[in-house]
Amino acid sequence: MYIGEAAKKSGASERAIRLYESMGLLRVSRAGKYRVFSEADIEFIRLIKEGQSLGLHLSELKELVDGEQDFNWTKVLQLLEEKQQSIASQIKMLEVQYLRIGEYRQAIDQCNY
């Protein structure tokens, strides 16, 4: 299948697919000047998109690629653990901010502005 159909099946735009290829994340066979996508390519594009939805950057995903259209799953697990810890820290920070804002609102309310 060509890039238009690959975009429809994977949910990625044609532009995104070209970007993945230019970054070396995706290696697509060619027939003349046309890219020819397999079902494995579509699945790999979906994996890339799923990684992005979890907050992973394309540069991080590129570092995880191991060989032909596969990830080094040990590295993926490590990165996901790091991301999860980072998010947990951000949540704690936001909870503190949330409480402080509540305290300030309450203090301002008591001032009878």
Give an overview of the whole structure.
This is MerR family transcriptional regulator. InterPro entries: DNA-bd_dom_put_sf, MerR-type_HTH_dom, MerR_fam. The chain is mostly helical and 113 residues long. The chain has a single domain (3-110), classed as Multidrug-efflux Transporter Regulator, Chain: A, Domain 2 (Orthogonal Bundle), CATH 1.10.1660. The chain is 69% helix and 5% strand. A two-stranded antiparallel sheet has the order 1-2. A hairpin with a 2-residue loop joins strand 1 (29-31) and strand 2 (34-36). The chain is elongated, with a radius of gyration of 21 Å.
The helix-and-strand class reads mainly alpha
- Top CATH class: Mainly Alpha
Summarize the biggest pleated sheet: 2 strands, antiparallel
CATH topology: Multidrug-efflux Transporter Regulator, Chain: A, Domain 2
Low-confidence stretches: none
